[in-house]
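Dear colleague,

Thank you for sharing your sequence with our group. We've completed the structure prediction you requested, and as agreed, I am returning the results in plain text so they can be pasted directly into your records. Please verify that the sequence below matches your submission; if there's any discrepancy, let me know and we will rerun it promptly.
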Amino acid sequence: MSEQIYDIFVIGGGINGCGIARDAAGRGYKVALAEMNDFASGTSSGATKLIHGGLRYLEHYEFRLVRESLMEREVLWAMAPHIIWPMRFVLPYHKGGIRPAWLIRLGLFLYDHLGGRKLLPATATLDMKRDPAGKPLKALFTKAFEYSDGWVDDARMVVLNARDAADRGATIMPRTKVTSARREGAAWTIETQDTVTGEKRAFQSRMLVNAAGPWVDHVLSDAFGKNQVHNVRLVQGSHIIVRKKFDDPRAYFFQNPDNRIIFAIPYEQDFTLIGTTDRDYKDDPKDVKISDEETTYLCNAASEYFKEPVRREDIVWTYSAVRPLYDDGASKAQEATRDYVLKVEGAEGQPPLLNVFGGKLTTYRRLSEHALEKIGEVIGLKGTPWTAKSSLPGGDFPVRGYEAEVAKLKGRYPFLADPHARRLVRRYGTRAAMLLGEAKTTADLGRSFGSDLYEAEVRYLMAHEWAYTAADVLWRRSKKGLYLSKDEAAALDDYMAGTRVHA
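Please find the predicted structure tokens below.
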């Protein structure tokens, strides 16, 4: 049994779990977090990677959620200007389309004015015969609306929240599964097992937070022994990555005849990301992968807009995740609420449990604040809300200061090629210098694993960001998996295994 009693024990290392742990640790609570796999290994790295108000949620009258999301865009951008940046979205329109022009204009008017926008530019109307955004599209689309939202490196946002929580004193445990949780007197006894070593441990905590995402009901049934648990509706969202379809830095918002929408977004310099799908999912979330039907759907939907069709052979990578939406009884997957629901359980005198249902990347910080309000009500308040004016690790530079940070890094490390310097600032912000250390030449960065991934970066990720396998580095801490061959990835795995043994 661990000697100390924690105030809060969080189950789940996705964006909500890590966000709650960070906020709580910053207020002075004693916090522990257990994640059964790597951070963001589930839903939180399988998003469309947008910090957005959710234009389409207006159709379902989710005004509270849209307003909160719109207000959060600039707050999050200021917190993490290295991994979040503004993006313009082009919404092509043609007469006889799915939604009339007046409805789109009304939606965009609300979008511009509902959420206290200060830095992001307002909506504009484009003549697609003249605007470069019209070039890759079919001639049918002569007009478009353009609006602002944000882009985020989702998995990095999760791990940076975990890193900051740890820096503020939280005990952070990836690859640690909660096997049981029971109330004993005034505290929870939580038993865990390290999924790598098999080591079992027990912890005590005054409060438990179940933020296991798609596994939230599994935790309630497996760890707590509850029967007939059904709180979340699992909705699968899949994406395809193809070679770059267009050179414009803007993204596209495409409306489909079935009333669903997909995005086509510039991705990692050389690619285009197309997604997402929306369909109910009944199987184990760990087995989720894109289906043939979804692949066909995304290729066909994008091909309705692009002059050059999107073909299956263009696909270089796919990813799929399960969104754990609160089950509000909606008839269609795309109509289920994207809002979050927080529920506290526990009779008077019993240690409480907070279950977190739903949520999205954009609202994670506000969800965490709301969770801390509920936590304060049941175990006593500590501290005050603080995250709105904070920076995530590496994000302590001005909101529009990315180019200046790149120039600063190149000035200090003149041997860095421009694309490499840009990537390092995009991933690590001001902490890029921590990673590069005293390096004077490229050789000082150690072994090259392919592309511009060097030993210095891998060692940094292992030491500071809990990276354990090549997949952790290639697909979550970076997207270098798009550039490395299978042999190079295997060599990286071998290197990391050897490094762990000798650490």
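Summary note from our side: DSSP finds 13 helices and 18 strands in the chain.

Kind regards,
the structure core
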